[in-house]
Design brief:
The protein is an alpha+beta fold. Helix 1 packs across helix 16, helix 11 packs parallel to helix 13 and helix 13 runs parallel beside helix 16.
């Protein structure tokens, strides 16, 4: 008996003030820590790549491969921590992507790669310096869209101003405008006037290059001082270029570039750009979050800036500004669900325990949930585990809510029964807790072992699973503290001896008596006979469960239950990504994008007719292309849509078919996580590799269940090689 009065459980039961202080401190710490936790829609993958890029305008992809890519690959063969290398060479340079091993440090790999590349001495002399970069976490947050009845140049000027103001916000560190076109100064020369002054095109270009150049700096120094010299005459505006002198006489009168040319500030037209939004010209700015950003804070600051632009009247007539594809709604909805489930769980626990045991037991068991919730938030901060509030961690909270109250319910029932049987004393409270302490501890620890194993999974997906498992593990460990230390202190003065009373107390006593009788009836009339029957025919029962076990095990093998490495998660948008063959004709990309947009509108109309709706389900439709070989369309649906994303993607895919010149067209409404599997084909012969790729692709396309096959093998562009004959060399 003396031993039961010793130990941590007994000490806290005898000192309830300490238990209350512990509970209060953890809850306050959790409340204060909640504002420190970053929020992100979905946990981003750990970066795994180091990229080495070199610009080399050789005009020949093979020459770039031999002069750059192969030399880099050979130099990196001895570098540890490399899982695979992939190189891509074009007529303008080469890029080598290095993927690290799962547990290898990316910073160390980048340093090793840089040292090896810097040691290569025989790159082509015309090649630019290698650019070495490592992957970073980058996640989409929200689109800011300018669109309307205006030309692309006007929209870009507004967009550049909007980008500067977005980046001025403290929570926004990166934006990206895919439809951005480089500025270009067009100098159109009047040949007649040029010849009248005896000048040539070379004279004009030399004058511009001499008077508009990047800064050159040097210094003059002696024992007394150092003077920094800087020569900089960079021209930026049309007036700067127009005032560049071409000729000058002794009197100081000179001829300028503006006298013989027409100078216009315009945009580069050497690359095809397409940007439309809801059928009008558009300029989209994508706000991106890095590893230090908070999705809710970024969205809030973005919406504030958009509202400020409307309030200040900065938009010309016919131009609209709005935001769409807001990823913060994902975490906001999940946090709302977590709050709703927590309140519902507390209410259900309270009602059940109040009916079958005691109101005070019900209250203190339910009060343990806030302790566990806020304690876990405190442990998620950078001081401990460094987690964020995202879809995986909130899912861990939701799952843990149904588990963490189990041992508290068992302890509460044991304390109540012990005090009711032996008397209302602190000793019996401690005794009731100790009676179930070991079984409940082992129950929690076995569950912790299962979820802790998820926390130790390596790899990209292991990072996702580990966050979920770590949150559940923390919740379970805190539930041990709450049920074994704090709860007994709260039940130390629990009255269990029922006294007859009238009013509400008497009415509630009748409810409890009725619930007790109902539970006793279920136990005696239903459960006990079934249990007795199972014990009498125990071998038949064992055989039945073995048969069920074999049946369940066989379901994945016979295809009844599909097997997938990662669940198919619904997306927030429907997207189409298209790439063309390298020999596609000029203008084919624009025609295909128009066809895809038309097919999308037809799919929307077809689904409207199916569900007898007069309102389109499309809220935002963005069409973008940044070259002659590829383009994308992104669609966001309205909240009150009558059809689903999957339905729209299916009908759109059917109507679009395979446009002319398309190498790959992928229309999807599901979040793209991981590939089912990858196959690498290797050969020293390009022709053999191409034939093997075609045969393997054909075999895969005929396999049931295969919906998409992607290949990184890109045939080179057609090229004509000329070799001089002996007669030609003699000329």
């Amino acid at each position: 008996m003396a031993d039961s009065q010793r130990g941590v459980i007994a000490w806290f039961a005898q000192n309830p003030i300490a238990a209350n202080l512990l509970m209060l401190c953890i809850i306050i710490a959790g409340v204060l820590s909640a504002s420190e936790l970053r929020k992100e829609a979905f946990p981003s993958m750990e970066p795994r790549f180091v990229t080495v890029s070199m610009t080399y305008d050789s005009g020949d992809a093979k020459q770039a491969e031999e002069g750059i890519a192969i030399k880099i690959e050979n130099a990196l063969e001895s570098v540890p921590g490399i899982k695979r290398m992939t190189s891509t060479s074009t007529a303008s340079g080469s890029s080598v992507q290095v993927e690290k091993e799962t547990d290898y440090d990316l910073e160390t790999l980048m340093t090793d790669v840089k040292n090896k590349v810097d040691a290569i001495y025989n790159f082509p002399s015309d090649a630019e310096k290698a650019v070495i970069s490592k992957g970073r976490r980058q996640d989409h947050v929200i689109w800011v869209q300018l669109y309307g009845d205006a030309d692309q140049a006007s929209l870009q000027q507004l967009g550049e101003q909007l980008e500067r103001e977005l980046l001025a916000k403290d929570g926004i560190s990166q934006v990206e405008a895919s439809s951005y076109v480089d500025h270009m100064m067009s100098v159109e020369i009047d040949e007649a006037r040029l010849q009248a002054y005896g000048l040539t095109l070379t004279d004009v270009s030399d004058a511009i290059n001499a008077e508009s150049s990047t800064a050159l700096t040097t210094s003059l120094r002696n024992k007394e001082k150092v003077i920094r010299l800087k020569a900089s005459e960079q021209a930026y505006y049309t007036g700067d270029f127009a005032s560049i002198p071409l000729l000058a006489d002794a009197s100081g009168t000179y001829l300028t570039v503006g006298d013989v040319t027409n100078i216009e500030d315009m945009f580069a037209d050497d690359a095809y750009k397409l940007s439309r939004y809801n059928g009008k010209n558009g300029y989209g700015i994508q706000v991106i979050m890095d590893e230090y950003g908070d999705v809710e804070n970024i969205v809030e600051q973005t919406n504030e800036l958009v509202a400020d632009w409307h309030q200040r009247g900065l938009l010309p007539d016919g131009v609209e500004l709005e935001t769409w594809y807001d990823r913060s709604t994902l975490i906001t909805e999940r946090l709302d669900l977590l709050t709703k489930n927590a309140v519902t769980g507390i209410a259900m626990v309270f009602v059940v325990l109040a009916v079958f045991l005691n109101l005070r037991v019900a209250f203190w068991v339910a009060a343990g949930l806030p302790f566990i919730l806020f304690g876990t938030l405190f442990c998620m901060t950078d001081r401990f585990s460094g987690l964020t509030l995202n879809e995986m961690t909130t899912f861990g909270f939701i799952m843990a809510l149904g588990i963490v109250v189990d041992d508290a319910v068992v302890v509460g029932e044991s304390v109540y029964s012990t005090r009711q049987k032996y008397g209302d004393s602190i000793h019996n409270t401690i005794l009731g807790t100790l009676k179930v302490a070991v079984p409940t501890l082992f129950g929690v620890f076995t569950t912790v072992a299962a979820f802790a194993a998820l926390s130790n999974i390596s790899g990209g997906l292991g990072n996702l699973y580990s966050q979920f498992g770590l949150v559940v593990t923390i919740c379970l460990l805190l539930s041990v503290v709450e049920s074994k230390i704090i709860l007994p202190a709260h039940l130390a003065h629990l009255p269990t001896q029922k006294k007859k009373s009238g009013g509400i107390s008497g009415l509630w006593g009748k409810v409890q008596d009725g619930a007790t009788k109902g539970l006793r009836w279920f136990s005696l009339v239903l459960y006990r006979p079934v249990l007795k029957y199972a014990l009498n025919f125990r071998y038949a029962v064992i055989l039945l469960f073995v048969a069920l076990f074999v049946l369940v095990i066989g379901m994945p093998m016979n295809g009844t239950v599909r097997v997938g490495f990662f669940p198919s998660l619904p997306g927030d948008t429907v997207s189409a990504e298209m790439s063309l063959q390298s020999d596609a004709s000029y203008g084919q990309n624009e025609r295909n994008m128009q066809w895809l947009e038309t097919s999308l509108n037809k799919a929307d109309q077809q689904l409207m007719d199916k569900y007898h709706s007069d309102v389109s389900g499309i809220s935002s439709l963005q069409v973008m292309a940044s070259g002659d070989q590829s383009g994308s369309i992104t669609v966001e649906l309205k909240k009150d849509k009558v059809y689903s994303l999957d339905e729209l993607a299916s009908v759109w895919r059917e109507l679009a078919g395979t446009p002319e010149g398309v190498k790959q067209l992928k229309i999807q409404s599901r979040r793209e996580m991981v590939d089912a599997f990858k196959v690498e084909l290797k050969s020293v012969s390009d022709e053999t590799l191409l034939l093997a790729e075609e045969a393997f692709r054909e075999a895969l396309s005929q396999t049931d269940g295969v919906t998409s096959v992607e290949s990184s093998l890109t045939p080179g562009e057609a090229m004509m090689r000329f070799e001089l004959t002996p007669q030609g060399r003699a000329m």
